[in-house]
């Protein structure tokens, strides 16, 4: 329930001119209420004016938009373009005005990007857009005369690609006084060269970085990864994501004797120096027989581990099942491995050891068939803390899914299931794993009927709290959605370059 104070704040900001003219008369402790009310009602001019006159030393966006005693609604999932642009413009106004009011810290982190915006304008400003807006504002302010002004530290989550690389570098490396000093807490990189990545990370104050995501179109090999970790250094890093094939041997390296990988050992040693590292994602890197080398040096137990499509063998699974990390895992992704056919005993031993902590498990395209459902139910039964279970892309029938759903209802904390399109909905003889074209060609009417039956299983077990769905092309990714045009251009350029190289190679052969 909203408090009388918040209702009064809403009433005031509903009249923008009156609100802006009254700010000098408002008590300092009411500014947070005015800010949230103006954000809620999308009164952008009031939002900008409130921040421009902000009388407190700190402005923390996530805390201001989160639930409070005055207004219990959580607005952190409103990445509203209108309001966020007003926030950054208001921040610029504040540092330009100077005066006795000094905003020491502006924390713009904590916004959650979701698929459907609940704000009135329905227009989102994603992480890439927020990065570019802040960087361009910093560059504009660097050109302003600012003699004697104190700077404001701005904490931000940066998303850098080829499209905004230059402006971000300029913002992070001012040639003179900078009214806004950007401090990066999390960093996502896509469609950059290794040299660009190394350069911009060196400017982003990596000593304070907590989360680093290097994804998709950053072409790293093991040599680049070792150089990045050794030269830049990330003492506070909690979460690290590396791109596809990040552990491939550099093409110029001398082939090593079988069983030796000095680069991987060096990378593992660098990771072991990160005493806060608890989340590691190395999906789509070939790590056959190398998991022990990579993970055993880590002194801090991992809470999240993504080893999807890493071509693990029995020795890798045996190490995972018995290592110290297993008893601490909260999030685990082993997609792309034939777990229940090749090494069921070690996989179930891993589940038993992780059962007290495991909250999210992903087993997509693991060749789980009807004959494996009984074993899978036994393996999952100890996982009483499991909240999310994703197993898309497995060849399971409607009958097997019903049996599995009945067992999943016994897990008290489970809230989300992502299940595959039943194989009954595809033509007989359909091969697995499926490509994107094949996965979309199923009998929608038959699927709808089976999905209703599966939801009926949940209802009969009084588990309406479980959300079950089939995102055929994967879950919504706001970062990919936002930069799809740029990444498409990048891929076309990469394809063109590959064709040119191939053509040159053919000419040399001739």
UniProtKB/TrEMBL annotation:
What keywords sit in the KW lines?
Leucine-rich repeat, Repeat
Q: Does the keyword Electron transport apply?
A: no
For whether the record's keyword set contains Repeat, the answer is yes
GO CC entries: cytoplasm
The parts of the chain that form a coiled coil are: none
Record's superkingdom? Eukaryota
Family classification: Belongs to the PRAME family. LRRC14 subfamily.
**What is the official name of this protein in its record?**
Leucine-rich repeat-containing protein 14B
Query: What species does this protein belong to?
Result: Marmota marmota marmota
Source organism phylogeny: Eukaryota, Metazoa, Chordata, Craniata, Vertebrata
């Amino acid at each position: 329930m909203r408090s009388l104070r918040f209702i009064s704040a809403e009433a005031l900001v509903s009249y923008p001119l009156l609100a802006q003219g009254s700010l000098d008369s408002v008590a300092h402790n009411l500014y947070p209420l005015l800010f949230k009310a103006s954000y809620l009602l999308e009164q952008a001019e009031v939002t900008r004016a409130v921040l421009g006159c902000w009388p407190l030393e700190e402005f923390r966006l996530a805390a201001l938009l989160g639930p409070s005693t005055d207004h219990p609604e959580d607005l952190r999932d409103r990445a509203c373009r209108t309001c966020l642009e007003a926030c950054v413009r208001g921040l610029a106004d504040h540092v330009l005005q100077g005066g006795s009011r000094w905003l020491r810290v502006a924390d713009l982190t904590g916004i959650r990007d979701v698929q459907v915006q609940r704000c009135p304008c329905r227009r989102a400003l994603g992480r890439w857009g927020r990065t570019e807006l802040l960087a361009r504002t910093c560059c504009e302010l660097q050109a302003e005369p600012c003699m004697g002004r104190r700077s404001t530290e701005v904490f931000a989550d940066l998303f850098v690609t080829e499209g905004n690389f230059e402006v971000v570098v300029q913002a992070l490396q001012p040639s003179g006084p900078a009214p806004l000093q950007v401090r990066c807490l999390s960093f996502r990189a896509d469609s950059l060269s290794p040299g660009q990545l190394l350069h911009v990370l060196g400017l982003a104050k990596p000593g304070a970085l907590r989360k680093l995501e290097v994804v998709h179109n950053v072409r790293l090999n093991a040599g680049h990864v070792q150089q990045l970790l050794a030269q830049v250094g990330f003492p506070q890093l909690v979460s690290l994501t590396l791109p596809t094939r990040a552990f491939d041997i550099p093409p110029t390296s001398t082939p090593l004797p079988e069983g030796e990988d000095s680069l991987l050992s060096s990378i593992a040693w660098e990771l072991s120096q990160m005493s806060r590292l608890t989340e590691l994602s190395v999906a789509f890197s070939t790590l056959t027989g190398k998991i022990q080398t990579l993970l055993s040096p880590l002194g801090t137990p991992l809470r999240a581990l993504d080893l999807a499509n890493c071509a693990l063998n029995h020795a890798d699974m045996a190490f995972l099942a018995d290592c110290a990390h297993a008893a601490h895992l909260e999030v685990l992704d082993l997609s792309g491995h034939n777990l229940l056919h090749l090494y069921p005993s070690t996989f179930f031993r891993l589940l038993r050891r992780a059962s007290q902590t495991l909250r999210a498990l992903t087993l997509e395209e693991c060749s789980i068939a009807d004959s494996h459902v009984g074993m899978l139910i036994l393996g999952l039964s100890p996982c009483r803390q499991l909240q999310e279970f994703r197993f898309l892309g497995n060849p399971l029938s409607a009958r097997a899914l019903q049996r599995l759903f009945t067992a999943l209802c016994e897990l008290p904390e489970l809230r989300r299931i992502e299940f595959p399109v039943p194989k009954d909905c595809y033509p007989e003889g359909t091969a697995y794993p499926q490509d994107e074209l094949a996965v979309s060609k199923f009998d929608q009417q038959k699927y709808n009927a089976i999905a209703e039956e599966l939801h009926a299983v949940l209802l009969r077990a009084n588990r309406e709290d479980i959300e079950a769905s089939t995102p055929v092309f994967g879950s919504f990714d706001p970062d990919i959605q936002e930069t799809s045009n740029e990444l498409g251009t990048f891929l076309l350029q990469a394809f063109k370059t590959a064709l040119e190289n191939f053509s040159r190679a053919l000419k040399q052969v001739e």
